[in-house]
Design a protein that fits this description.
single chain, about 450 residues, alpha+beta, 8-stranded antiparallel beta sheet, 6-stranded antiparallel beta sheet, 21 strands, globular
């Protein structure tokens, strides 16, 4: 449960939280065969193991398991397999807060100290809304130097808060954005203090029971849980058992488990107004900063809105998305750490919405002269301290990320290139005069724009 704990080389990609932008044509097409082909391509290379569900307006288009829920016993994944959700948990925590808000028990704009009076003075300006939107500026406890040593030990929300409560804030609350699991630990403590219930009991009674989500709950190593997937992670020697994490550690930031079918019920119930009032749902899904709403990411594609979140915890990577216009649900639950669930989630949403997906082995190289390639040379800033330097060497366009070796870019079409060694693509953007002004790095389900310097 390191930094990838609750989120998920070209290793080119700078480390960070997984934000997703989705593009597709507005024409709807449900090609379940192509969807299965795309997922199976990753599963056959042992890049993905898990369960997948795609549905439109409640009608299931794809519902299959891939790989093994337990590799030692050769038990396959299927639609009934239970997976740890990682940060997909955050939307459930956010909805729990919104329910308490509707009941008049929590004010989103009240100071955190209203509910946790022993909070430090540095938190005086910090509100519940700041916690929900990652604008509270709290140090992320999963990135602290002692996290790996302590993640195997039982704990509580209060004990976790003690690890970061006295650390300096990254900025004044509300004045910046920094993804932090710590905010959702504080929200866990608020839910328990206000409701008088444990977080696990509150979520089950108020969210899961009303939607008949009988295969979902807060995970615990001690409990005998039928059909729970084992978690795995890649290594230099092949796939190994994932590191142990005590499930009291993730709290409301990443501690829940579920199945693909239960998460379909969740999307139908949440967006079908069975849990929250319309005004509460609007608050939940309105971006506050950096396209992040309350426990949810929001991406626009024309007039369409896609609401999603990814998750990661030791042995598991997950993705859940909903297209509010076309009522599309995509669920990808994986029990093998890696970027595949996020990438596959974006591709399945694209296919479900009528777009096209090209697999790595389907890409065709195009001829391009050295002079034409030279037009793309330059430095492109992906993030602070992380840039791509492109130049032509021996008739080949190469890209060198900060601190990494150069890799060859193969032209596919004008302004579109791919990296043969890994599943990454680069597309170039032009200004009104036709000059190249930037690029977009596509890798692992993420789209990372980089202006030309």
């Amino acid at each position: 449960m390191s930094k990838s704990v609750f989120c998920g080389g070209l290793r080119l990609v700078a480390a960070g939280f997984c934000l997703l932008a989705i593009t597709a044509t507005p024409v709807l097409a449900q090609d379940a065969g192509r969807m299965d082909q795309v997922v199976r391509a990753a599963a056959d290379k042992d890049e993905f193991s898990g369960s997948v569900l795609v549905a439109r307006d409640g009608q299931i288009l794809l519902d299959r398991g891939y790989g093994l829920a337990n590799r030692e016993w050769s038990i396959p994944n299927d639609s009934a397999t239970r997976f740890r959700l990682g940060s997909v948990t955050k939307q459930f925590t956010a909805v729990a807060i919104m329910l308490l808000n509707e009941r008049g028990q929590v004010d989103l704009d009240a100071p955190v100290k209203t509910y946790l009076p022993n909070a430090p003075a540095a938190w005086d300006r910090m509100t519940v809304r700041h916690l929900l939107t990652h604008t509270a500026a709290l140090a992320d406890y999963t990135r602290l130097e002692d996290f790996e040593a302590k993640k195997t030990l039982p704990t509580t929300a209060e004990a976790l808060m003690a690890r970061f409560r006295d650390r300096p804030l990254a900025f004044q609350p509300g004045e910046g954005w920094a993804y932090s699991n710590s905010g959702y630990v504080v929200l866990t403590a608020i839910i328990e203090r206000v409701s008088g219930q444990t977080y696990a009991d509150f979520v089950v009674q108020n969210l899961f029971h009303p939607l008949n989500m009988g295969d979902s709950g807060y995970d615990s190593h001690d409990v005998i849980l039928p059909r729970r997937a084992s978690g795995y992670t890649p290594s230099g020697e092949g796939v190994i058992n994932a590191a142990y994490v005590d499930m009291s550690v993730p709290q409301g930031a990443g501690g829940l488990y579920s199945t693909t079918h239960d998460l379909l019920k969740w999307e139908q119930g949440l967006f079908g107004a069975r849990l929250l009032k319309p005004q509460s749902l609007a608050i939940l899904t309105t971006p506050y900063r950096n396209n992040y709403a309350l426990g949810l990411e929001v991406a626009k594609d024309g007039d369409d809105t896609i609401i999603s979140h990814s998750g990661a915890i030791d042995g598991f990577n997950t993705y859940l998305a909903y297209d509010t216009t076309n009522r599309m649900t995509v669920v990808v639950l994986g029990n093998l750490n890696g970027a595949a669930p996020l990438k596959l989630g974006g591709e399945l949403m694209t296919l479900a919405r009528g777009g096209a997906v090209t697999l790595a082995d389907e890409r065709q190289a195009a001829a391009m002269s050295a002079d034409a390639l030279a037009a793309y040379s330059g430095v492109y800033q992906v993030a602070p301290g992380f840039a791509l330097t492109l130049k032509v060497a021996d008739g080949v366009l190469t890209a060198q990320a900060t601190g990494q070796k150069p890799v060859a870019l193969t032209p596919e079409t004008t302004d579109a290139f791919f990296v043969e060694a890994i599943d990454a693509q680069i597309t170039f953007t032009r200004n009104a005069a036709g000059g190249i002004e930037g690029l977009v790095l596509h890798q692992g389900g993420r789209e990372m724009p980089a202006p030309r310097q």
